[in-house]
Amino acid sequence: MHRVAALLQEVPDLAALGALVPQRTVRELDEDRRLEAPERALGAQQGVRLGVEGEDAPNVFSGVDFLSRFHHGEQLNLGKDVVVIVVGGGDTAIDAARICKRLGANVTILYRRTLVEMPAIKEEVEEAIKEAGPQQRG
Length: 138
Known about the structure:
The protein has helices at residues 3-16, 26-31, 63-71, 91-102, 122-132, and strands at residues 83-87, 106-110. The chain is mostly helical. The chain folds into two domains: 1-42, no CATH class; 63-132, FAD/NAD(P)-binding domain (3-Layer(bba) Sandwich). The N and C termini lie far apart (49 Å).
């Protein structure tokens, strides 16, 4: 069975599970001749708990929760006196860190591996580094 045909059969099942179905159908994406190989992806809709003391504090958010609040227009009081520590090296972590920096916060990203091993999109990581200015790497 063709990949697109198989995905078309799965879309109702995905929607029943709560997945957001885009305004353009998979068929429309497949027929759009400007797209060489349209891809479909499902992202995580819930953050991961770390199991550390204090993570239930009112000023601690998962990356997914923070990005949702930001994109839904919630007033997030960040500024130059606010220190934000982002734990992780994936796309959500980098997005959250960049937004916090743009809102004026002093941002530190903690990741357990090397910069090269970060799973986030490399261009996004490079842009985050540029936006951060002079920094210390460990």
